[in-house]
Every structure is written in C-alpha cells, then in structure tokens.
Amino acid sequence: MKNFLTVLLASSISVSAAYATKIKGKVLDGQTGEAIAGATVFLEQRGLSTKTQLDGSFEFKGLSAGVDRVHIKHMAYAELIKEIEIQKENTPHFIFQLTSTEQTLMEVTIKGRRNGGDDDPSARRLEKNASQIMNVVSARAIEISPDITVANVVQRVSGVSIERNSNGEGQYAILRGMDKRYNTTLVNGVKVPSPDNKYRYVPLDLFPSDMLERLEVYKSLTPNMEADAVGGVVNMVMKSAPTKLLLQANLATGYSQRYFNRDFGSFSTGGTSAKSPYELNGKNYNATAADFNKGALDYTYKKPLPDLVGNLTIGNRYLDDKLGVILGASYQNLHRGSRSIFYKSAVVGVNPNAVITEQSDRQYDEQQQRLGLHNKIDYRFNPNHRISFYQMYVNLNNMQLRDAVNTIYNGQYDPSIGKAELTYVTRSRKTQQQIYNGTLQGDHHFLDNRLNVRWSGVLSSARNQLPQNTMISLDGVEENFERKRTSLVNKSPVTYRWERNTDNDRAGYWDVAYKVPMENSKLELSTGGLYRDKQRSSFYNNYNLSPASAEEAKYKYGVDFQRYTDLNLTVTNPTGAVANPLTYDAGEKTTALYGMFNYENDKWQMIGGIRMEHTNQNYKLLFPAGEKRPEGSQIYTEWLPSLTMKYHLDEKQQLHAAYYRALNRPGFYEIVPSSVINEEFLEKGNPDLKHALADNFDLRYELFPEASSQFLVGMFYKKIKNPIEYTFQPDEVRKQDVYYTPGNFGNANNFGLEVDYIKYIQKFGVKANYTYTHSRITTSKMSRRINETTQDPEAIIVDQTRPLYGQAAHIANLSLLYKDANNGWEGQLAGSYTGSRINTVSQFLNDDLWQKGFVQLDASIEKKFRAGWAIFAKANNILNTPMELYVKGTNPENEKIAEKLIEGGNTLIRKDLYGQNYILGLRYSFSK
C-alpha cells in the first residue's frame, strides 16, 4: 500500500508539471510602440507580480491553465486591467499597450512628452523627432551613471571627448575633434557666459549632474539657433516643475585612493581678501608684509575628511495646475589630487633632438567645493498663454596646493649621477568660479494656435577670482640621492597675485511663427532674433616679497626657520604691478536676425533659412604700459545659411541630412595685446586675430527598432576658414622672446564617421559608440639647416601639415548595463577610449606635444528598496590610467636616462597619475 501511494504521488506531481505552463509578453507605449521598462504586471487571481525588463518584456513560470485578470501599472501611464486566458501550452505572447497620462510639449525645435527625456525611452524619442542631428542623455541615465558632473557625463556621447584638469576630472568638451573653443554651452536653450579668465568656453565641471532633466548635444544647427558652434552645442536642460508632487534627495560619501597611503596638503584661506592692497587702499598706497594673509603660506599635511555629495529637489503644481514650482540644490565637497612628472631640455621648447636635463616632480592636492542652486516658476494663464522665470547659480571653489621639486642635473639628466641643483616651489591657489543666469520667458498662441510668439529676457553673469595666489621658492641640493631644502631661492622668493574677471550679459530673444493652413502637410514660417550686450572686465596685480635683510636671505630651512610663516619679508614693489596690459575693460554687442521655414509631410521634413549675426567687439587697456594699440575693435557681419532634411523610410528608420554655416569669435583675452609670464612659457594676445568660419555637412541614418534601442551611423565634414590655433611664435621686436599666441592658419578640413548603438535584451543592455575623425591644418614651423657656405646651422621657416589641436582620430565608448526590475538591481560598467591627440603646438618642426591614447574605466551600481529608497555606489578611474605626453622622436643620448623615457621612438615628457575615486550613497525619491 505504501509503495502504491508513493507511485500515485509521483504520478500526480508529473501530471501537474506537465500541465504547468509559462507566459511571456511585452508592455509598450500605445502611442509610439516603444517598450516600457519597470512597469508592474500583476495577476489578480494567482497573486503573482513581476516587473518589465529593459526591453519591456515580462515572464511568469509555473502557471496552471485558466482565465485571470492582469493589472499593469506605471507612474507615467494609466493603469491597464485586462482579462487573459492562459492555455495549457503554447500560450501566445501577450502585447499590452499603455496610454500616457501626460501632455505633449509644444512644437519648437524638438517634440516629446512632458517627462521631457528623463528616462531612456523618452530620450530616444526626442532624438527620433528632433529637427537637428542630436544625441540625448536622460536624467535616469545620468543618475545611474558613474558620473557626478556634467563634464564627465558628456564624454559618454558619440563624437565627444573631454579635456581634463590637473586632477584628472573632466572639464571641457571636444565635439567631433573640434577644440573646446568651437563649441557653445546653453542652459535651457540660452547661452551662458564663461567664468574662464581667458576664453569664452564654459568649464562643464561647474555643473553637478543631478541638476539636469536631460543633456542634449546638438551636432547641426537651424537658423533659430546661435551660430557660434562649429563643433556643436551642449544644452543642459534643467529640471522643471512636475505634474504632481516630487521629492528627490541623495546623500553620499566617498574617498580617493590617492589618500589611502599619503596625506592631503592644504592651507588656510581665512582672512584672505578678494581685493589687493591697491584696490583696498588706493593707487598711492605702499603695501607692507602685514597686508598679506600668512595663511596662504601655512601649509598642513594630514588625512582628508571623507568626501560629501548631496542633492535635494522638490517640485509641485498649485492653483489647479496653473502654477508650477521646482527648487533644487546640489553640493559636493571632494578631495582630489595627482602626481605629475615633467621632463625638459635646457634649450627653449621641448626639442626631440635635445638632451633632457631637467625634471619637475609635482604633487597636487585640491579640495573642490561645488554648489548648484536652481529654481523655476511657471504660470499657465490658459492653454494659450504662459510665462516662466528660471534662476540658476553654480559656484566652484578650488583650494589647490602644489608642491614641486625642480631638478637640474650637471650635464645629462640621470638620477644615477647623484648630484643636482634643486628648486622647491610651493604654490597655494584658491580659485572661485561662478555663473548666475536669470531667464524670464513667455509663450503665447493666437489665431486658433496658428500664430505663436515667444520671447525671453536674460540676465547672466560669470565671475572668476584668484585672490592672493601665493608662490614661494627655495633652493635645494641633492647629494647621494638625498634631497634637502636649503635657502630662499632668489631676491624675491615670494610672490602674491590677484586675478579677477567678470562677464555680464544682458540679452533679449524673440521668435514669431505662423502655421500656414495646408492639406496633407504642414508649413510653418518663422522669424526672430536676439540682441546681447556683453561687458567684460579683467584685473591683474602682483607683489614681490624678499627677505628683510641680507643676513636673513641666507637663512636655512629647518635651521633658521621651520615654517614659511616665520619668515620676515619686505615688499619690493609696494605699489604693486597693476599697470599692466592684463587690466582692461572690453565689450561685445551681438545682433542677430533669422528667417526660417519648416515644411513637413508624411515622408519629408525640411527646415531651412538664413541667419544674420552682427558683432561689435572692443577692448580698452586701463594701463597701456607702452602698448602701441591700447584700444581696438572688431566689427563684422556674417550671413549664415542652413538647411536640414529628414526623410522617413518607415516608422522606425529615417535619413537625416544637414548643412549649416557657423562662426567662431576670438575671446577678449586673445585680441588684447597683453603678455603674461606663465611658469612654462610666455603668453601674448593678438589684436589682428580674425574670426573663423566653417561650412558643415552631415548625413546620418537613424534606426529606432524598439524601446530604448537605436542604431545611428553618420558622416560629417567641416571646411574651416581662418581656424584659430595657439602656437609658439617669436616676438617681432624682441626676437629672443618666444610667445604662445593665437593665430589664423589659412584653411582646415575635418571629416569623420560616427556609429551609435544601443540594445537591450531582458535584463542586459549595451551602449556603444565609435567616432573616427580626420583633420588637416598647415602651419609654419621653425627648423634648422646647414648653410652650404659657412657650414653653420641656421634657422629656417617651413610648413608642416598636422591634425587640428585637440583632435583624436579615434574615440569610443562601451557600457555594459544590467537591470533586474523585480529585485531592484541596476548597474553598469563604462569604458571610454580617447586616441592620441596634440596637446601643445610647438614652434619647432616635428616638436608638437602629443597626448597618448588612453582607456578610462568606471562603474556604478544601485539597489532599490520599497517606498522609494535606494543605495548606490560609484567608482571612477578603476584602472588608474595615467595621462602621458610625448614628442615623436628622440636624441640617442636620452636612451641612457635611468627612468626609461623612450618607447617606440617617442620621448616621454610628462606623466600624471590620479588614483581611483569611490562614492557610496543613499537615494530617496517620492512622487505622489
């Protein structure tokens, strides 16, 4: 009997298993057909639930046959309830389509739902519907990425590489091989000024990434866009008021691998004045040592506190959804650093034919305090009229301590010699950069929505300050491999510098569009323009200090004084050095008008027209100091046509083609005939510098097969007239002086190929892009030849063709994604490759300084819990990839150097190491 029951039970289990089945399906957007990830699928009678994966798919296993009721929920869609039949076997795959609960944006340049690109499906939809050729990074993609600043986020976009600062953090974007000077930065479609003390381009590391709703990179222009974007446009779309209560917050801490085994160098900034003694007390004031804060010389070394990263965003709508308000704040306090080693020859420049005799070993420690504040208020009077006011403030404080040991060996550079002359140079520098933008906008519709009027009033300000930038130099000696600091280095071992510049913009924009009534097609005619008044001021002053007596000049470090604050110093130039060409005022008035048409039918969309931009740029030196051209101006008008065409092959694929003409204006610093002594070279402006013009052509095939997937492949070509590049040039008057100066160099060409691929399969996804760029420019270089008569070497000028400065031939990104919606896990491993590129253009033939190609690997992971909580971790520079600079070629004598600087026929000139950085945090998100 017992055996009979066992057999019966086993048979029952087998029969049950035989009749158990599974069902599969997908959840799609009912309007676009795109997959919806993260939707909850609930079987009512069985009490089972699951979530859709990255490709919108779901699956239930071990079900019995029968009828059930399925509930599908997603926060952006209306709930779907439907009765389904589960068959014993071969149940057809279910397809469920959800209806969006949100409205569509008005048609301006791009079209999309109100969530505006805050998730990947919306971002792909924006790219598909965009008039321009563009790429979009969604807020969700930014949130789960390893990046915490906009500069690092933008490197994930196809065709974009970044230029890093001295600590390895991303700072500037290079689009399609065009240096940062050729790109424009916008906030909500409005240009913001730059706090940079020399140039127009905006450092993107100012912006915390969690302020963004999405990041847009435009690679072609239409007539209603500002035209100074030869490379492209980076547009930061900030968060706006949601349709219902939204609360988001995160708090994280972290540490840099660099400080696991070494201390962090810092100094005191308390008591440092933003203004020099000259500004505080008048031009006739004689400064004394007591006027300078000694905290800038009070160096301390200890373990840094953990990093801190935080963000808070809250928004809602009131008054029957007429009034929308959003407030956001972001704060980052980070400790970063690097070790940088330079190798130089005793001759001017870095010449591969010269013998290396000098080394500079630099340790950087930097505390970055980044603050971002923004708010937006919008009011809808009725469906046809609304206004909004947006404010943004970002501030970045950098407190950097750089300790350098400069070594000059007697003869060839070789540490094994055991004896050398040393100079210890320590620099303490506080830099404060900030940008404010306030934008008042109106959007009005008349004549049954056929006439649209939009306007904007903009007030922006950018500021850069370096108060009491301090440097102290000491002599040293190396004997038997022991390095010692000895005495103060020269007659003026301590210098204090004040630098400050401001950019203030007042601008007005207006656009008028009229929709022409047509059957089976659409035609919109529009016109508009802008007027901007930019005022810039620049201030520079420095003081030199020396020992108070001849006896004190002989004091020894560690013997006669233990700390730099113990020094008794006197000011050798008590009135300062404000009378220099770097103290100037400048202005620029820009006027633009455009006319544009936008035609669209079932297959075609064509947008074309012309834009006029008039520029009146001027400068005035406040202390000419003998300059021949103390005042100057550049006035010019350019007519800039453009045409964009898009052809829909079917619902999922299309062809995109574009042509536009763009310009690049010189920066104020670049046309002011100023000269400044940098640590490595002399630098000087060029009042004869011309603006550059470029004709740009694009062709791209676009496939959006499903969900967040895409395949884009395109070609681009740029023909640039009067490109602006920096080179080393001899001074016309003082031939022995060589300046790093901007110039125009005939014509240049730049063409390339881009491939962008995104694919999701259930829990896994891959994002990959690759860009090949080829550019050519011809510039004059100095070379040497042997005089046939005297047999002596003589200098000659020859032409050399090379790539554009900053352009890498190969750029690639690969991200491996994982998302388990049911268990709340999401993560990615992101690799970025940038090929070799020119870092510095030399005056000598075959002497350009190249940056070696490198791979950076980053990672992030997140675990979601109930009620909106999540924990996350981010890791950057996992491979500790160094930044290396080299020259092509070498002197045979350099192969004897003990540190092995020769590899593949190239000579290493600089190597920077940064270390890994880690962050662990907690995130909370609530949406009513």
Measured on Cα atoms, how large is the radius of gyration?
31 Å
Name the CATH class of the largest domain. Mainly Beta
Number of helical segments with 4 or more residues: 6
- Mean pLDDT level: 88
- Total separate domains: 2
> Structural class per helix/strand content?
mainly beta
Globally, the shape reads globular
CATH architecture of the largest domain: Beta Barrel
Helix content: under 10%
List keywords for this structure.
single chain; 928 residues; mainly beta; Immunoglobulin-like; Maltoporin, Chain A; 22-stranded antiparallel β-barrel; 5-stranded mixed β-sheet; 58% strand; cell outer membrane; transmembrane; transport; Plug_dom; TonB-dep_rcpt-like
Task: Kindly describe this structure.
- Helix content is 5%, strand content 58%.
- By secondary structure, it is mainly β.
- It has two domains: 21-98, Immunoglobulin-like, CATH 2.60.40.1120; 251-927, Beta Barrel (Maltoporin, Chain A).
- The chain has a 22-stranded antiparallel β-barrel. A five-stranded mixed beta sheet has the order 8-13-14-11-12.
- The longest helix is centred in the first third of the chain and has 18 residues, at 2-19.
- The chain is globular, with a radius of gyration of 31 Å.
- The chain starts with a helix and ends with a strand.
